[in-house]
Each structure stands twice: as C-alpha cells, then as structure tokens.
Amino acid sequence: MSKEAIKSYNCQSLALVGAGYWGKNLARNFNALGALHTLCDRSPEILGSYGADYAAVRKTDSFDSVLADGAVTKLVVATPAGTHFRLARAALLAGKDVFVEKPLCLDIAEAEELVAIAERANRLLMVGHLLQYHPCVIVIRRLIAAGDLGRLQYVVSNRLNLGKIRQEENALWSFAPHDISVILSLVGGELPDQVRCCGESYLTPGVADTTLTTLRFPGKIRAHLHVSWLNPFKEQKLTVVGSRGMVVFDDTKPWAEKLVLHRDYLNWSEGRVPTPSRAEGALLSVKEDEPLRQECMHFLDCCGSRATPLTDGREGLRVLRVLKAAQSSLEHDGEARSTVLERRDFSAHPTAIVAGDAKVGAGTKVWHFTHIMSGASVGENCNLGQNVVVSPGVTLGRNVKVQNNVSIYTGAVIEDDVFLGPSCVLTNVTNPRSQINRRGAYERTLIRKGASIGANATIVCGIEVGRYAFVSAGAVVTKPVPDYALMMGNPARFRSWMSRHGQRLRLPDADGVYRCPESGLRYKEIEKGRLICLDLDEDAPLPEDLAQPGMPYLRA
Questions:
Q1: Strands 522-527 and 530-533: what pairing?
Q2: How confident is the model at residue 8 (pLDDT cuts 50, 70, 90)?
C-alpha cells in the first residue's frame, strides 16, 4: 500500500485496546503508519511508558469512551484471549472495523456471533494470524499454487523454545494458532477431517507445556505440529513436502537463509525404486519485510478498500474449530476428533455459520460457507447448499431444498417442500436506494408449499407464489402466482398448469379434468385461474408410493 493510500483513508482513526506486552509492537507499527489515534489500557504505568513519539496520541483507560468517539473508526484488540469476544462484539456493534489478536475468541458459538455481527453490519473483522503475512509464507503459498512442489503430501511445523511460559493458557493455544492458520491456507482452506493431540503439563497443573498435534486432511494430506515452551533450544521451522519438491522455512536463520527449496529430491531407478537425491537445496530470494508491518498495512488497506482480509473472521473461526478439536483430543489422551460441526440433531459443514439462537430442525444439512443468521428458523430435513444466506426473521418450512448461492432476505416466508434453484433471487425492498434506510420496511414474500423456483429466477418482493407453482429458470415474477401455475419469461407469464409431480398438464378430457402423466392424479380448473387436485388435498402429505422416483419430465 502506498503512502498516498494510507493518507487518503487512515489518518489517525485507529484505537488500540491493550497497549502492553504485544500491544507495544502494534502501537509502534500503527503509529508509524499514521493511523494511531488512541491508546486504551487499564494500566496507567503502561500508558505512561509511551514517550514523545506518541505525544499526539490520545491515552485513556476508558473503553466506553473509545466506543463513543466518532473519530475512531477502527479498533484493534490486543488483550487476553478471554476478553476478545466481549470487546470485539462491543466494537462491532458500535460500528467499528475490528482487528483481534489471535485467537479470535475461546468459544465457537461466540466466534460465530462475531462473524455474524460483522457481516450484518458490513464491518471488517480480521484476526491477527501473523505468520500468514510473513514474506516467506507468501512465497510458499505461491510455490504450491504454481505446482512447483507437485501434489501436496504433508506439512511439519515445529515451534519450540525455553519460554515464554504461561499459566493462563497452554502451549497449544499460545503457539499453534499461527501455524494452524498457515497450514489451512496451504491446503486451500479445507479443514481436517481428523485431529489428534497429545501433550503433558509439567510446570502448572492442567496447563500443557508441550503438545504434538496431527491433522488429517482429505486426499491423504497430513500435518504435524509440535509446540513447546519447555525446550532447550529455539526452533521455528516449517517444512512442506510435495511429490516433486520440498521447501523449508527456518525463521531462526538470517533472512537470506530462511527459505530453502529442494527440487526433485528423489531418483527413481528403473522407474520403480526411489532413492534420495543428495543435492543441496537452493536458497530462495525473498524481499525482506517485517510481517507485523505487512499485517497492519493489510488491515488498513482492507478498511479503506472494503476488501475481505486474508485472515478474516471466517478464517479465524476455522482455526478455532481446529484448536477446539485439538484441545478436546488433548483432554482425552489423543483420541481422534472431528472438526465437522454436529450440533443438536442437524449437521453443518465446518465453514458454515449458524447463529446460536437460530432454530434448525432435525435432519437438516447445512453446507459450505452457508450462514443462518440470528432469529432465523429452518425446519426439519432441509438441505441448504453452498453459500446460502438465511437472514434474521426468515422462516423455512420442513423439507426445503435450497441450492447454491441463494440469499433469503428478511421478509421471506418459505413453506414446506419448496425448491429454490441455484442463484435465484428473493428481494425484500421494491425501491432500494443506498442513501435511504429501508430497515423496518421490508416487504413480505410468501412461497407456498411445494412450489419450485428455477435457477436465476427473480421473485419481486411483496407477492405470493402459490402451492406447487413452477417458476422457470430465469423468469422474473412481478405478480402473484396461482397454485400449480407454470410461469415463464420476463416478465413471467402463465403458460400452463403443472401437476404436483412437476409434469405439465396438457389437455383436459370432456369433463375438464386433467390427469398427471406420472402419478395419475386428477386436476380440474374449478374457476378461471384456480386449479385444484381432485384426488389429494393440497395440504396433505404426498403418499409414500407416489413420492418414489418416477418418470422424467415429458417435454412433448
């Protein structure tokens, strides 16, 4: 980021909460970048330790005064982990962009709430996973992305030292978050399907001084993490092994020697017997930069551009899931744990976010990067695909199928057995303007039982789509839709009737009765524009024998 960019949107608008041990490093960087407005700490001694370089920086022990200060638009939390949730939540609700030091917080439900608040308020939430911003790690990610290492096989991370010894958190929570964050980025953001962790406490009862963690990922990728503050020498080494190359990042070496690449480390005699190549690795030239400076600049840059940070709240939540699984395994002598979210009697992918007060029915499945927000209600046996948003106050009935990339906004009511196709659009404001706040004026859209909405269709808000109606792909629905109606086009127009089984009803008999070619159920238009099923009430469940796989759609 250029100095001009910093000037344009970062002039002394950032408050640092927690100005002590690690906070001093953050203060130094943000002050040098011209962004530091306020230092907040409960200790007068810590605030008094800041010299002439910080003369223009406000100093206070009142967190509430920081929240109330309109000149502060960004807030950094560098306090003990147990306070992260409370402080970050208050800052987000006060409209600040927030940078939280690792870990994001200590509880998964609390982390989900922070992510939900940030997304709902359009605020940035970034987590201080510092190692991600190290130039050597950035080069390793590029090597993997370019295929220079071949197929990724395993990663080994050792973070060992004699000290700094803690009593409030164990070595796993103190040292491992940075390495877990990096490992997840190297495998493309995937979470491990199995976590094992062993360790022991020697200095403080119940606080593990050393831990060994093994992560198993899909595709036979493994990662091993050894962390300890009870080791006679310092080691900070990351080794990444691929099928065609290995790279070693040793952060204790001089800068020019930190990153070594070993290409083609095996020779295959007769194409079948592997023998190691003894060639020395090649030192990789990496531009020297302070990782913390890069991290601080990244936060400021994202605040200005509104881009998603590399280590955003969702990334912090993924790291927290691994930490919690590892902690559980540690407490049970290395028993395998999963990061797949299993709560109550529904299942959610680890990347999904389900607000703590959202209601989700038994048997429902929530897939990748889907967000069920606070106050939403989802019925039993629903299936929500990837990148789905269910906004506050939305109600989904039972057995609703929502395909990928669908946002269901406040005001929508989706009854039982509805199908929402990929990327269909449900609006909730007829006349949106960015300058006008329409909250509280959302319009109600009702999708009745059994209706199907095709891919990329748009349902203009304030209307009702009738029971078992069928809206074709790409249609734009601007008026109420009758039960069983097939709607096509832009704007959508009635084309014919559709049966409960999704088959087009072609021609009635002499008595005006239509018959579904798949189920045999009879239908009749009892008045103009109103069709009913003669054999089965519209609100009755479909008999089991009629719900089995039948014939494909009849086009002619």
A1: antiparallel
A2: very low
- Residue 2 or residue 265, greater confidence: 265
Fold of 341-503: UDP N-Acetylglucosamine Acyltransferase; domain 1 (2.160.10)
Average pLDDT score, the chain:
92
For the purposes of burial, counting CB atoms within 10 Å of the CB of 510, is it exposed (0-12), middle (13-18) or buried (19 or more)? exposed
Which residue intervals of the chain bear CATH 3.40.50.720? 3-130+292-309
150's tokens: 């071949």
Which candidate, 451, 488, 493, places its Cα nearest to that of 472? 488
Q: What is the DSSP letter of 364?
A: -
Q: Record the pTM.
A: 0.69
**Strand, coil or helix: 423:** coil
The fraction of the chain above a pLDDT of 90, given in percent, is: 78
Retrieve residue 64's tokens: 């509430």
Compute the C-alpha angle 345/350/353, nearest 5°: 75
**CATH assignment of 132-288?**
3.30.360.10
For the stretch 72-129, pLDDT in tens is 999 999 999 999 999 999 999 999 999 999 999 999 889 989 998 998 888 999 999 9
Is domain 3-130+292-309 in CATH 2.60.120.200, yes or no?
Answer: no
| Encoded tokens for 291 | 């990782």
Instruction: Characterize the bridge pairing of strands 245-250 and 230-242.
Output: antiparallel
Between CA 67 and CA 269 the distance in angstroms is 67
